[in-house]
Design goal:
With 143 residues, the chain is an alpha/beta fold. It has one domain: 2-Layer Sandwich (Nucleotidyltransferase, domain 5). The chain is 42% helix and 31% strand. The chain has a five-stranded mixed sheet with strand order 3-2-1-4-5. The longest helix is centred in the C-terminal third of the chain and has 26 residues.
Length: 143
């Protein structure tokens, strides 16, 4: 693990209805390099999308890293730092634990919709991805 370099990861999830079509997004800032990713699910919950954003961001890292992961999801941050009980989404918690175990992660809560540039950018990407899920749902319904 490179102790001098710390990667910043910003994540967000969005759901249009809960449950409903949803999207997730991440921004990875590694020095001057910035990577973005997003995806969607036709039927999901907001919590699942928040978790998927963190999972998908961690999946793209190719080796053990020092990371500060920022999220506006108190469920995500407090479960990973304070051991909140995991009542639902056991599949995602297991995957998140597996991926988190490969890295040294500082989990940081950021207030959503409060002008934080990367959180706002992730929110925009996640909402765009959720809109794609709406379109996918409409196509599936017409078949």
């Amino acid at each position: 693990m490179n102790s001098l370099r710390v990667i910043q990861i910003f994540t967000d999830g969005s759901c249009l209805g809960n449950p409903g079509p949803g999207g997730w997004a991440y921004i990875i800032q590694d020095g001057e390099e910035r990577r973005e990713g997003f995806g969607h699910c036709v039927e999901t919950t907001n919590n699942r999308m928040e978790m998927m954003a963190a999972i998908e961001a961690l999946k793209v890292l190719d080796s053990s890293q020092s990371i500060i992961l920022h999220s506006d999801s108190q469920l995500l941050i407090k479960t990973m730092t304070l051991g909140w009980k995991r009542k639902k989404n056991q599949d995602l918690w297991a995957e998140l634990d597996r991926l988190a175990g490969m890295h040294q992660i500082s989990w940081t809560w950021v207030r959503g919709h409060n002008g934080h540039p990367e959180n706002e950018a992730c929110d925009t990407l996640a909402q765009r991805a959720a809109s794609m899920a709406v379109s996918s749902r409409a196509v599936q319904t017409r078949k």
